[in-house]
Design goal:
The protein has one domain: Vaccinia Virus protein VP39 (Rossmann fold). Helix content is about 40%, strand content about 20%. The protein has a 7-stranded mixed sheet, sandwiched between helices. About 0% of the residues have low confidence. It binds S-adenosylmethionine.
Length: about 230
Amino acid sequence: MSQLIAALDEKRLRRFQRSDTPGVSPNNTPSPEAARQRYDETANRYDLTTRLLARPRRQAFEALGLRAGETVLDIACGTGLNLSALSRAVGSSGHVVGADISAGMLARAKARATAEGLGNVELLLGDVSKIELPDADAALFSFTHDVLRTPVAVRAVVASLRSSGRVAAAGVKYAHPAAIPINLAVRAVAPRFITTREGLRRPWSNLAEAAGPLKVESLLFGSLYVASGRVLRT
Ligand SMILES: C[S@@+](CC[C@H](N)C(=O)[O-])C[C@H]1O[C@@H](n2cnc3c(N)ncnc32)[C@H](O)[C@@H]1O
């Protein structure tokens, strides 16, 4: 009986994930070009839309356990909401490298870094799966479902990390299939920020495959997660 319920849940979830919404790419894979365009258009309002997400952001940051002198990557850094905390954690002897595909978002990140005097921050413009990343001790994936659902990008980030490097991701996910109202809300809101709903059940799965086992915590009735761990090299 429980297997039957699980199978029905899977079927319902697959139907649920079908891409028939404006903003979601037709083949349900991430579209860097669509993301670039959308975030260039919405960069000036972005910070207002993410105020409620301070807790998972902070938890992912804390999970990295950054130390003075380290280099940390802020993958798809957007307007730089995480830059101050990262910059302070690694100190003047450390280095924060933020990367984002949207020039509009990155311009805001640059203005923030300048206004706050974050002298250890460098910003790179481009698709994370294509740009060259420096060697680093840790990488943060904060609300960047599109990048996490791009295996080549995730592998490139993990490859740039030193042995035992740390990774942490925070973002939106589907709750248990039975939590229908929550999942309807996630389904409705997510396309404002992401170009694919693929992988919303376990957004960290590509990261776990590339890096190793992750500790995953659910928040807000299962609609948010924080995943973190260390890179295991065999
Ligand atoms: C929801 S915002 C998150 C921004 C920031 N990390 C935060 O926590 O607020 C998603 C960001 O991912 C960026 N992005 C999407 N696909 C990307 C890619 N392939 N390479 C680099 N950045 C990407 C977008 O431009 C956008 O700034």
